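Hi everyone, sorry if this is the wrong subforum. Our group has a chain we'd like a structural model of before ordering constructs, and none of us has done structure prediction before. Sequence below.
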Amino acid sequence: MITKILIANRGEIACRVIRTARALGIKTVAVYSDADREAMHVKLADEAVHIGAAPSAQSYLVIDRIIEAVKETGADAVHPGYGFLSENRNFAERLKQEGVTFIGPPVGAIEAMGDKITSKKIAAEAGVSTVPGYMGLIADAERAVKISAEIGYPVMIKASAGGGGKGMRIAWSDQEAREGFSASKNEAKSSFGDDRIFIEKFVDQPRHIEIQVLGDQHGNVIYLGERECSIQRRNQKVIEEAPSSFLDEATRRAMGEQAVQLAKAVGYFSAGTVEFIVDGRRNFYFLEMNTRLQVEHPVTELITDIDLVEQMIRVANGEVLSIRQEDVVLNGWAMESRLYAEDPYRGFLPSIGRLTRYRPPAEGHQPDGTIVRNDTGVCEGGEISMYYDPMIAKLCTWALGRSQAIDAMATALDRFEVEGICHNLPFLSAVMAHPRFQSGNITTAFIGEEWPDGFAGVSPNNDQARLLASVATYVHLVEENRRTKISGTLANHTRKLGEDFVAVGGDQSWPQRVADEGRVINIAYGDGINHTVESDWQPGATLSAFVINGQRLSIKVARVSTGWRLRFGGVDMVHHVMTPRIFELAQYMPVKQPADTSKQLLCPMPGVITQVLVSEGDTVEAGQPLATVEAMKMENMLKAERKSKVKAIKAEVGKSLAVDEVIMEFE
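Answer:
Right subforum, don't worry. Here is the predicted structure as tokens:
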């Protein structure tokens, strides 16, 4: 019987495993690097062992360090989580040699499915539908171009040992195939220590749908429905849901049965995921099998009421599955939004820094019958470092139907407070509010198609902008009333507030006549629209509920200079409230112009310069690669925006740069 589990991972997945182990009465051991000394998973575990420096190659990826920690603590089992060593056959084999239980699949299955080229051949032999492509090894970029042209563009260039979107590129031309091959090869070598690449056809109108499988060591394998993971950026999942709104029962069964066939073909046991690409006609093709717990496993748990981590532990313990295929019932709908430390306004580039505020929404059963779950590995005051994946949390909601689950997610996102770093909360809210997403008409190209020029935020409609104008007036009056009471105490008289104001947001302005009744104010606009606003907001509160004409909104409120920054539903606006006379005079104020950076290449994210591809004095053409920056395990190539001449290079290879630090200057 397993009595103590060492979790060979960090962050939210380590915390997740600890929760289930504790519920089963099993002690836990955390491992940590220099960067994670104060991390949440370290504090939650019964014991913790330091395993090295911050870079994962010097800590979480060092098998010997993990084995030493196992021996030091007497752990009799290891759960690898996902990423790092979770699909490393050498690690699983080493644990077996040491007599330590690996909470995962057999070594043979890891080896067979861990190599994408081999896995596709096995899948085809097992009767699983596969994507057309070239499964042999590709020597160089020119060979990659030739193969891509033969398959027919667009093609997907992928790392054989890859996962999580690393080492993956889509190419639509010879030039993109040449560049994509080199970039994928470099990323694969850096992330997995294996730079083998293969190429396959990119399926038109693709949806990414995966099947969760679960098997025991006695030959029993079942599938637990599907997850739709089509909302992706940089080939990495952002929003997942279960089940998929696209599948009919016949397709679901066919995909599930093929996933089970593949699992049985490799003698699989434990939790695993078989990923498929599905076209617009519901034809499905095998992509890969992930021989580990998936990031998005909570949505499956929410619709099946099955704890996958518990099942993994029981299977590793040699127990027979207590669940049969006919016992699996999909109940309701679940959504998962991945909260990332990244800037959605700058191409989702990663962000680092300290979480000066981190307040998730309340978890558990909600008054409306929905459920909120937040899997995280951070807390307020924690630091997001440049060494690891930028995911902060996985916010999940459950409801009886898809539309209710989306509404619950939108509400939960509005109640999630994160400050101190850039994050993608506004983008996640924008997706939930998007009519196309709500309709279920989505593909893996959704983000690129709906925001082709990049995400620039949510532009409020006239009604939303006016709602925020009313909120701004409410908080302005609360603060002004507070000031009048203070001034009245000090000077023995009370400053009177008028009834007429002008709220200004963006390029719009709204003249108002206000009747202040304390917790409730009535606002009359010049065009006949009236708003009654009620709230318990007090100065200093950063999140409050506002009821406007009966509509309840959770709005984030922050003081900025002379105005108010208000955020909800992905909308982010600054409003000012002033008297009519001040508004009249404000029209004469000059507008500050932004600094001219057109002759500089600025670092778009915190990271390390890995290549400088030009020299001082070089003339560069538009689109020409200039330098590469590596941050949070992703390699990003920076290109020239126009033809120009390099005047000076300010950063050298190996240098760590902050956001907007100058890399080079142009004449």
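For your construct planning: Residues 462-491 form the longest helix (30 residues). The radius of gyration is 27 Å.
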